[in-house]
Design brief:
Length: 135
């Protein structure tokens, strides 16, 4: 099973032929953020869904008490790069709130039901992020 840097590397090498489909047939994308301290590109393979023409990801970190670094990076700089299979594009990330978040959470939990197990593990509200394509 691919994970972490190996997942990103194989995905990029094969334009997603290896790595697009992850555990239980779940789709993944590569999200590139800018490190909030280093200013360097940081890449993560993330489960995603599509909703209303946008890509959606969840900053769950398995229900850990702190947000994942990729989320902290995009809060500091919401201009990101996204790769879905061979399609690479610039996007602006934003955190969904209120009713939109609830709708997107339910949608993402259909794709990866474990999200519903992660939320009770943490006091933080797990962010749901909308990636709005720029080009």
């Amino acid at each position: 099973m691919l994970f972490g840097d190996d997942h990103v590397r194989r995905y990029e090498e094969t334009d997603g032929e290896v790595g697009y489909t992850w555990m239980k047939g779940t789709p993944t994308l590569i999200l590139t953020t800018t490190g909030r301290r280093s200013g360097q590109p940081r890449k993560s393979a993330l489960i995603f869904g599509e909703y209303d023409g946008h890509h959606v990801v969840v900053a769950s970190k398995g229900g850990a008490p702190d947000h994942p670094d990729w989320y902290k990076n995009l809060v500091a700089n919401p201009e990101v790069m996204v790769q879905v299979k061979a399609d690479k594009f610039a996007a602006r990330a934003r955190t969904a709130t209120g009713e939109e978040r609830a709708t997107l959470w339910a949608h993402m939990a259909e794709i990866w039901p474990d999200y519903n197990e992660y939320q009770p593990k943490t006091d933080r509200e797990i962010p749901v992020v909308v990636l709005e394509r720029l080009d």
